[in-house]
Amino acid sequence: MNEIILRPLVEEDLAAVLKIEETAFSSPWTHASFMQELHSAHSHLTVAERRGQVIGYVCCWYVADEVQILDIAVHPVCRRQGVGECLLRHALAGGQQRGALSANLEVRRSNLSAIALYKKLGFCEAGVRPRYYADGEDALVMICRFTEHLSLQEEKTEKRKQS
């Protein structure tokens, strides 16, 4: 059974989450960072689990009419299996259910696989934050406007129906 289960992140998940975080990022979040997010009213943390093991997570804020994706990572052996996409779709859907009109995030310019995923889900490059990361690498700012993305999806569906 390879089913991915999404559920709220709880404090007991932090050991597994921190291990994933440390493999995914050169400047990983700390235990204290995750604890702060766990206790923040506007922060939402979700884990992906398979066979009882945490294999990925996403942390986002739902603020006003916006979703801010703060942190997302997948265990190295589970990458390229749809886990990150599942987590990101979940975060975006949660924002839409709360009335968000858009989502945004920062991503390393060199993280081509993440950029490809974000583009697949409707994100567009909106700017650059020069030397954003501790090692001096730039961050791309990416935005997904839900109304535009949804209307594009509806347009594609309509074209398929007409073909």
SSE diagram, text form:
Layout: E1 5-8, H1 14-24, H2 31-38, E2 43-50, E3 53-63, E4 66-74, H3 83-97, E5 102-108, H4 112-120, E6 124-129, E7 139-145, H5 146-162
Parallel strand pairs: 4-5
Antiparallel strand pairs: 1-2, 2-3, 3-4, 5-7, 6-7
Write a concise keyword list for the protein shown above.
163 residues, alpha+beta, 7-stranded mixed sheet, 5 helices, 37% helix, disordered C terminus
DSSP summary: helix tally:
5
Alpha-beta content class:
alpha+beta
Shape: globular
Instruction: Give the termini separation.
Output: 37 Å
Give helix % range: 25-40%
| Rounded mean pLDDT score | 90
SSE arrangement, N to C: EHHEEEHEHEEH
Biggest sheet strand order reads: 1-2-3-4-5-7-6
Q: Largest sheet at a glance?
A: 7 strands, mixed
Give the strand tally.
7
Nearest-angstrom radius of gyration? 16 Å
Per DSSP, what share of the residues sits in E-state strands of 2 or more residues?
25-35%
Q: Pick out the low-confidence regions.
A: 151-161
Describe, in short, the structure shown.
With 163 residues, the protein is an alpha+beta fold. It is built from five helices and seven strands; from the N terminus they run E-H-H-E-E-E-H-E-H-E-E-H. The chain starts with a strand and ends with a helix.
